[in-house]
Amino acid sequence: MAEAGQEISGEVLREVELKIDIRSATIFVIPKSDEIQDKNMPRNLHNAAELFLRVGMVDAAENVKRNVADLLDIYSNNPDGKSNFHVGRGVVCWACGHCGIPKGGANQKGSNIKDDLQKITPGPCNKCGETEQVNWLKVTQPVDATNTKKEELPWIETPPLSEEEMKKKKEAQLLAKRKEVEEQVKRALEARERKNL
Fold first, then answer.
1. What's this model's pTM, rounded to 2 decimal places?
2. Are 135 and 123 a contacting pair, CB within 8 Å?
3. Closest by alpha carbon to 21, among 78, 82, 62?
């Protein structure tokens, strides 16, 4: 047992419960030619998140969860093709767990669903810049009720905000928070006033 003022060193363990959406299993990881026979290669993003958790890469697992949730949210809102989205082929980065369109955007080789992905190098990661530990993704959805046929869909994501847009968003959030606090103070003062009468 440690006494006051005594430093404790060593590994810090934390218990993590991260619920991964089962629909992430419909997003397949495309192995590179030298990974095809690897039995340990995750087949889909659900497996990838489990692997990240197993090896203690919690932030990477959270990135997978968040990126998949963002993608599925966009699809659940039936994108109209007119909204401001980036569309292309996604990648998963094994260094940071980011899933999304690689740097270079949707116009680079490999972004077309019909491209032969065994001949095109995936990446680099749009978050950390990793170029080697990156794999293509294949987003699918069932075509029929038997779930035997699947159609491939593109990866869709909201483009990152510019510095000016980020500043405006922060200002709007601060203004909304200020109004909320002012309203709470106003109600508290009114309640105190009624209590004193």
1. 0.71
2. no
3. 62
